[in-house]
């Protein structure tokens, strides 16, 4: 649906050249919610703005529905752009126009008849839950309501792609959640492909199917949410994952690891998908002559699949601990926790 091929974007100002996006290759499939995360300055905004050619890549290609945007005529580009909606961090509403006219604006520009605009705007306002606010002005709305207007406006031209540029960054967590629910509904009911950029891993975790992590203009890691969260490879990715999954061990647990009892070992068990349903610890306690002591654990849900880890202390004779370890290794990912807690 969206295919970035070796996309590079450089800016030159005062004889200095900045490479904002550096040789990015990404494929966003039809119907996906794809997130791009990175710190400020990583190049996310530049990348997303390339999709509707608000920025023209310096090198590389962007294909939308197999069409190479850089080779299109003005008219063809206008047609493609009509199929790409966009929402923004600061909503970008017209303050002097009512909610109704903000949503209808792209349709008026396209010369759509008034009756048709009325029908369409009313149904979109119904969809985003603002049917009673049609005659309000943006200044009379909360941030979340303004973003709902932004979403309704973006949907007015029946886009196939929705670009979200930090769409929830100005909102509190609860409002963010309700906007993400709405975006999920947009995908389900309108079958729209969503590409979003954000610096919040919580947003990625809640809504995306896939994520790409950007740093210094490059994509340093990408994959499904499950793969990236359960096995982040780059330090920056690990830092982002930590913001939603705190895997640092509490001091009381570290104390046990620093000062282990005789005949005891501490293990980290990583549960993924179906393995979370295995009653592993009670099985181990029954099958082997060991005492099991759960020191720490957390399980979260990623894309409707449980994922978590458990820090367990096994006490007993070395031979029993080793046998229990081998048994667990067949069923979950397991590693001994060393003195530094990792
Ligand atoms: N129009 C421009 N002219 C010159 N440099 C630019 C321009 N737009 C962006 N840059 C530079 O390109 C780099 C990437 O910026 P970009 O806004 O794409 O990053 P970002 O990840 O979206 O960050 P933020 O979340 O802060 O917007 C930065 O160093 C920025 O200063």
TrEMBL record:
Keyword Methyltransferase: no
Regions annotated as coiled coil: none
Record's keyword annotation contains Membrane: yes
Residue ranges constituting the ABC transporter domain according to the UniProt record: 2-241
Molecular function in Gene Ontology: ATP binding
UniProt keyword annotations, A-Z: Amino-acid transport, ATP-binding, Cell membrane, Membrane, Nucleotide-binding, Translocase, Transport
SMART domains: AAA, NIL
Superkingdom field: Bacteria
UniProt-listed PANTHER family: AMINO ACID IMPORT ATP-BINDING PROTEIN, METHIONINE IMPORT ATP-BINDING PROTEIN METN
Name of the protein in its database record: Methionine ABC transporter ATP-binding protein
Originating species: Gracilibacillus marinus
Lineage: Bacteria, Bacillati, Bacillota, Bacilli, Bacillales
């Amino acid at each position: 649906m969206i295919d970035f091929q070796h996309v590079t974007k450089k800016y030159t100002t005062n004889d200095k050249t900045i490479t904002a996006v550096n040789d990015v290759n990404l494929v966003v499939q039809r119907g996906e919610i794809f997130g791009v995360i990175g710190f400020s300055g990583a190049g996310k905004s530049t990348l997303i703005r390339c999709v509707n050619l608000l920025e023209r890549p310096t090198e590389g290609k962007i294909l939308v529905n197999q069409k190479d945007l850089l080779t299109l005529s003005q008219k063809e580009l206008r047609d493609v752009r009509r199929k790409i909606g966009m929402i923004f961090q600061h909503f970008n509403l017209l303050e002097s126009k009512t909610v109704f006219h903000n949503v209808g604006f792209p349709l008026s520009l396209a010369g759509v008849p008034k009756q048709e605009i009325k029908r369409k705007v009313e149904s979109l306002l119904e969809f985003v839950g603002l049917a009673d606010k049609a005659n309000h002005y943006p200044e009379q709305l909360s941030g979340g309501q303004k973003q709902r207007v932004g979403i309704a406006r973006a949907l007015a031209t029946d886009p196939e792609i929705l670009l979200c540029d930090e769409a929830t960054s100005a909102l509190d967590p609860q409002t963010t959640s309700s906007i993400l629910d709405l975006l999920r509904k947009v995908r389900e009911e309108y079958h729209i492909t969503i590409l979003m950029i954000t610096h919040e891993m919580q947003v990625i975790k809640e809504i995306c199917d896939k994520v790409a992590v950007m740093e210094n203009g490059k994509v340093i890691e990408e994959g499904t949410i499950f793969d990236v969260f359960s096995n982040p490879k780059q330090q920056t990715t690990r830092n982002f994952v930590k913001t939603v999954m705190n895997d640092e061990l509490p001091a009381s647990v570290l104390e046990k690891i620093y000062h282990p009892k005789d005949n005891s070992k501490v293990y980290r068990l990583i549960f993924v998908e179906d393995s979370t349903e295995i009653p592993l610890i009670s099985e181990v306690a029954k099958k082997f002559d060991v005492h099991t002591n759960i020191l720490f654990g957390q399980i979260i849900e990623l894309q409707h699949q449980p994922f978590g880890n458990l820090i367990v202390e096994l006490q007993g004779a070395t031979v029993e601990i080793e046998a229990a370890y081998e048994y667990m290794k067949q069923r979950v990912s397991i590693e001994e926790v060393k003195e530094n807690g990792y």
